[in-house]
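User: Some background: our group keeps a shared notebook of sequences we're curious about, and every so often someone picks one and asks for a predicted structure to add to the entry. Today it's my turn. The entry only has the sequence so far, pasted here. Could you supply the structure so I can complete it?
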Amino acid sequence: MMKRREFITLLGAVAAAWPLIARGQQGALPVVAYLSSSAAGDQPKFVAAFRKGLGETGYFEGQNVAIEFHWADNQVDRLPALAADLVRRRVEVIATPGSGPAALAAKAATATIPIVFSIGVDPVRIGLVASLAQPGGNATGINFFLGELVARRLQLLHEVVPKAVRVAALVNPNNTANAAITLRDLQEAASAIGLKIQVLYASTSREIDAVFDSFARDRPEALFVAPDVFLTSRRVQLATLAARERIPAAYSSRDSVEVGGLMSYGTDVAETCRQVGIYSGRILKGTKPADLPVMQSTKFEFVINLQTAKALGLELPPTLLARADEVIE
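Assistant: Of course. Here's the predicted structure to add to the notebook entry:
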């Protein structure tokens, strides 16, 4: 029989070892990597939506899944190294919500680890999937019709500022595929309604400042801000500078309007991030990416900041306000 002293010693050893055992069990949780071209802290709403999607499939961070966040801090050239590191560590899923460059970097790094993306460009055209209905390979996700949104947003901006003839388009040159497709679709849409496009580039906060400083000598009559993770992350700076220069500006995200931007038309990006979380959870349960068709966003929203419109001296037609999904007063 075990003596009382031996039993107490054994009990103490088990108690001492328990934190190590617990850490070992936690380390054994499946790992989902969240890879983004953005900077940490720029996407709290998107991260929350992603976690919500995972939770809807029964996966909760720290309980039965681990989430590792990898941020490129708006330096797209860092993404290949970050993706390669995730491949070496054999994570279960690489999620790239709202970041086309991150999705492309992940795809270039692995043909086996599942990738779940949400992007505005055509994933077939840039080689992420074979088709929307049958993705094939190791990637799937959500597509939100960038081309159609670009044309619609420009049309709405034209209705808000009907006298504008020259519209500046601000794009991030580091987001190559997104910038090229945006400018192509924007030029087509502008030609159809008789507008001239002036292309401007910015990939840093300093370059954004320089763009607005240039308006003192070469002033457009309106500004179209391209859909881009970096530009969305600088929404406060953009809205502040647009107000300073008294330039009507159209954005892709309602977040920009909530901080003082004039108007937005686009996909509910947080909703696409939730869908990325759902797809990631389904893959953790055993579904192959090739068997999950690329979803297409159906939820779009037109938001106007009436206070900003008044500050710019714009009189918006009641019919236009009635078509808005939300008017911020």
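Suggested note for the entry: The radius of gyration is 23 Å. The chain has two domains: 24-144+269-298, 146-267+301-328.
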